[in-house]
Design a protein that fits this description.
Blueprint (H helix, E strand, L loop, with lengths): L4 E4 L3 H12 L4 E5 L7 H4 L3 E2 L1 H8 L3 H25 L10 E4 L12 E5 H7 L7 E5 L3 E2 L2 H15 L2 E4 L1 E6 L2 E6 L2 E6 L1 E4 L17 E11 L8 E6 L2 E7 L5 E4 L13 H14 L7 E12 L6 E5 L2 E5 L9 H14 L17
Parallel strand pairs: 1-2, 1-12, 2-8, 4-14, 12-19
Antiparallel strand pairs: 3-7, 4-6, 5-6, 9-10, 10-11, 13-16, 13-17, 14-15, 15-16, 18-19
Helix pairs in contact: 1-6, 1-8, 3-4, 4-6, 4-8
This protein binds flavin-adenine dinucleotide.
The site of flavin-adenine dinucleotide has 43 residues, from helix 1, strand 2, helix 2, strand 9 and strand 13.
Length: 355
């Protein structure tokens, strides 16, 4: 395909698709109105945990299967990102510990082992859980390392990034505003605008809404959990995610507050209550940072991937956008460049079927 592709939005999905398309020789321009990666993509904890997510947040079989497919693509995709960007992006697939046991943990036959209090204490001495399930092969990476690396890989493959706010979209052209002036870019348009998708003129009917998540980063005074922990105690649910430098992330809220940014006392106290029930040592940790971000949610919890009314869409990844980056980039690029059919369960048109 010789036609240029204009990607609206420079989050992880804009960067990942730019890398995929540019690697195949397509001319790619990414238009970002703010700082590349500064919204949901670097607010994320970076968990790669399709099974724990499906179990704890009621994901569908499709959500679980695309999540597992994407996790399977991660090592080879990261190797390509690292080779192109010359940045190292460590991947930690040391298992995810989920508080409680599930009678339905046949979810996709993921290898999962039930652990009692003693076994948990043996592998994670900082936790005080009485029972948990260890899902192997899942884990985390740091989005603040990943996103700049994917952007650098996209640039190295030939993609360019321009600053500007897209204020109009039609099949074949976008109008962007930058430094007070308007400019038009032509090409095939792909919307990667995350939670703001339905704010893009012409896309108001796409059912993507923001779900705010608050997060804290702390420096513990003693050894923290060494792997991702999903907590589901009497004081609410949350998660704990380690970092290589000893920091630990604890999150997160799920709030329907529109695009209201901010960290609230109620949000922080619910995060701390959920996590400290599993990890009492959290009480002595120094709080380093607190932030919030907007997950791009859809009514059925699945992303919107494919063509709709003459534009292409790669958005709506909700809680699993980091996990789903390699899958989305591969699938949307194959549909765009090779005409590969998109799974109807993911196609944006599924919400507009007649009848
Ligand atoms: C607190 C929190 C924790 C999370 N934890 C995880 C996790 O552990 N694992 C996981 O897999 N996922 C997680 N997620 C979800 C994940 O972060 C998102 O699904 C994913 O980052 C969405 O990426 P994106 O590129 O679509 O959106 P974004 O990163 O939000 O990027 C969209 C970009 O589009 C730009 N844009 C919008 N409109 C326009 C316009 N008109 N013109 C130009 N630019 C525009 C925005 O400025 C923005 O930079 C979490 C999210 C949050 C908020």
């Amino acid at each position: 395909m010789s036609e240029r592709c204009i990607l609206v939005g420079g989050g992880l999905h804009g960067c990942a698709l730019a890398f995929q398309l540019a690697s195949r020789g397509v001319e790619v321009v990414v238009v970002e109105r703010g700082v590349v990666g500064a919204e949901a993509s670097t607010a994320a904890a970076g968990m790669l945990a399709p099974t724990a997510e499906a179990w704890r947040h009621g994901g569908s079989a499709t959500a679980h299967s695309i999540g597992k497919a994407s996790l399977g693509l991660y090592p080879a995709w990261l190797a390509r990102v690292e080779a192109a960007s010359r940045c190292r992006v460590p991947l930690h697939l040391t298992g995810v510990l989920v508080e409680g046991v599930s009678s339905s943990l046949a979810v996709g036959e993921q290898p999962a082992r039930r652990l009692g209090a003693q076994e948990i204490a043996a592998i994670e001495p900082s936790l005080t859980l009485s029972e948990a399930t260890l899902v192997s092969g899942e884990g985390w990476l740091d989005p603040r390392v990943l996103v700049p690396a994917v952007q650098a890989a996209a640039r190295a493959a030939g993609a360019s990034f321009v600053s500007g706010e897209v204020v109009d979209v039609s099949a074949g052209a976008v109008t962007l505003r930058r430094e007070g002036a308007k400019d038009q870019l032509t090409g095939r348009i792909v919307i990667c605008a995350g939670a703001w998708t339905a704010c893009v003129p012409g896309l108001e009917r796409l059912p993507v809404r923001p779900v705010r998540g608050q997060m804290l980063s702390v420096r513990p005074s003693g050894p923290p959990p060494s792997r991702v922990v999903f907590c589901a105690g009497p004081l609410g649910s949350g998660y704990i995610v380690p970092r290589e430098d000893g920091r630990v992330l604890v999150g997160s809220t799920m709030e329907e507050v529109g695009f209201e940014r901010g960290v609230t006392a109620a949000g922080v106290s619910s995060i701390l209550a959920a996590a400290s029930h599993a990890w009492p040592g959290l009480a002595d940790a120094e709080v380093l940072e607190a932030w919030s971000g907007f997950r791009p949610a859809t009514p059925d919890g699945l992303p919107l991937l494919g063509e709709w009314n003459g534009v292409w869409v790669a958005t709506g990844h909700h809680r699993n956008g980091v996990l789903l980056a390699p899958f989305t980039a591969a699938m949307v690029a194959a549909a765009l460049l090779d005409g590969t059919a998109v799974d109807p369960a993911l196609a944006p048109g599924r919400f507009f079927l007649a009848g």
